[in-house]
Amino acid sequence: MKKTLALALAVVMSLGLLAGCGGGGNTSTPAQSNPGTSQPAASNPAASIPDAPAGGGTVGVCIYKFDDAFMTTYRNALQEILEGKGYKVTVVDGNNDQSKQNEQINTFITQGVDALIINPCMTSAADSIIATVKAANVPTVLINREPTAEQMSAYDKLVYVGCDAAQSGTFQGELILETPNKGDINGDGKVSYIMIQGDPENIDAQLRTEYSVKALKDAGIEVEELDLQRGDWDREKGQTICANDLAQYGDKIEVVFCNNDDMAIGALQSIQAAGRTVNKDIYLVGVDALDAALNEVMNGNMTGTVLNDAVGQATEAVNQMELLLGGATYTSGNQSVYVNYVKVTPDNAKDFVK
Ligand code: BGC
Questions:
Q1: Average pLDDT, whole number, for the chain?
Q2: Most buried residue among 129, 177, 213, 301 by CB atoms closer than 10 A?
Q3: Distance between CA atoms of residues 29 and 160, nearest Å
Q4: What's the N-to-C CA distance of the chain in angstroms?
């Protein structure tokens, strides 16, 4: 049985390498991490795996809140992939409440799950989440909200799977640079924009906000920020913020940057209600490539978006979970595995419709 596990691990690891995960995620085999032993320590819940059929363990999945358009696609993909591999999966809704999610993590631990996949409600809770899973010795994959390398280094059976948020911001800036007037619709020599931010506690929101504008500045474009407000990744908030800004700044607004597509769809409703026309007298960009946004990009109602690859990340999260279950450990500074973002324009949008 040990041999079968070693073989399965070798296959999984080579698949992982073929997948070409961008951000390191260096792993070591059980033999390296536990010198003198060929399998994980007996106290590790993963030690039960050798007696279980391949892919037959139990997995607890904690999602920060079900009522999030992108995380809905992501969690559905996770569930489908895990169940397809024969895992027994329970997915729970944290309702954006960290204390509720802490209870859910503790319940999974008490139930003796073999592995956890956690999308934290609050990035600031990373230290306590990591301490909890470490104390219980449960292999854990964190997703979507990236803690610092230092925080993750506290536990070697922990890995983060996500994307390099700076890249998505840069792509948003490039989408504007690729327009005929590089975002300067009124020709006054500067690009005047509003920024509708996700939850600012989340590094995706911070870096998208920074790098979208940085791409313009790096190209030598002068920028003017008319407004920056948090829309918490939420469509209705995106709509309200954009409506208020259009009422206040009117034609001065040339670009609407949204940290995600759901807020961009909300913003689009306000743009249309105000009688403005995307790609003619205003530009609008998002991130995620939700189906609704892809349709608007193809219809010309959004300038572009950026694919946040939910299926790719779910696949990689499961891959990393299986490495952990096989006894792999991670070294400090190599605990983030990134899946690439892809810039989406009217030319390639149809390729991403699910
Ligand atoms: C996505 C957002 C989502 C957020 C949740 C981001 O990466 O782009 O749409 O709301 O993750 O944490």
A1: 88
A2: 129
A3: 18
A4: 39
Answer yes or no: is pLDDT of 36 > 50: no
Maximum Cα interatomic distance, the chain, rounded to a whole number of Å: 71
CATH 3.40.50.2300 assigned to 9-163+310-340: yes
Angle (nearest 5°) at CA 236 between 264 and 183: 25
Question: What's the mean pLDDT in 211-233?
Answer: 98
| Predicted local confidence at residue 55, as pLDDT | 55
Region 24-35: mean pLDDT is 35
The response to whether residue 211 sits with its C-beta less than 6 Å from ligand 1 reads: no
Output the six-digit token pair for 248: 């206040």
Would you say the CB of residue 232 lies under 6 angstroms from ligand 1?
no
Q: Which protein residue has the closest C-alpha to ligand 1 atom 10? A: 233
pLDDT digits (tens, 9 = 90+) for 93-152: 999 999 999 999 999 999 999 999 999 999 999 999 999 999 999 999 999 999 999 999
Q: Which fold has domain 166-307?
A: Rossmann fold (3.40.50)
HSE, CB side, 13 Å, CA atoms: give it for residue 243: 11
Ligand 1 proximity of 74 Cβ (cutoff 6 Å)? no
Rounded Cα gap, residues 173 and 150, in angstroms: 30
CB neighbourhood size of 333 (10 A): 12
| pLDDT tens per residue, range 252-304 | 999 999 999 999 999 999 999 999 999 999 999 999 999 999 999 999 999 99
Which residues belong to CATH 3.40.50.2300 in the chain? 9-163+310-340, 166-307
Q: Which atom of ligand 1 is nearest to the CA of 204?
A: 7
Distance (angstroms) between ligand 1 centre and the Cα of 202 equals: 9
Helix (H) or strand (E) holding 258: strand 255-258
pLDDT at 54: 53
Dist. CA 314–CA 8, nearest whole Å:
20
Q: 314: which DSSP letter?
A: H
Which contiguous run of DSSP H or E holds residue 62? strand 58-63
